[in-house]
Give the backbone structure.
Amino acid sequence: FGVILSFDAAYGSFALDLPDNIVFRTIFNRHICLDSVFKIFTYLFLLLSLSLCIWGFKPVARGEIVLPKELMEKCLNISEDLYRKSMINSWNKSIKELACVRDNKAAILNRAVKYHVFAAISSIIDILLVLILK
């Protein structure tokens, strides 16, 4: 998340320097400012990517923590086999919860990267439109 966040911030400062030449074209009998449309898309996608990265940094409490005192109280009077089984069950439950957190964060990161790529594509289209239609 940190890498994409820093790329978004750097790209945001680059996007400020996108050409301000307004290119009007008549499409379907309407005047459309193509340059502004893609500049807005660039900022929108960067904003979405930034917000997803910040959201991805949000801590999530998952997994069971068993304190040694609780462990001694629970498992002092049980057999070694039952103790091992309870520890394995606890670890298994925690690992499953942590895997869900990992999968959710990976999905958020994938969306943030996609929005960053969309921002780059829209800024490239913006620059090309200014160069071609000028």
Remarks:
- The chain has a mean pLDDT of 80.
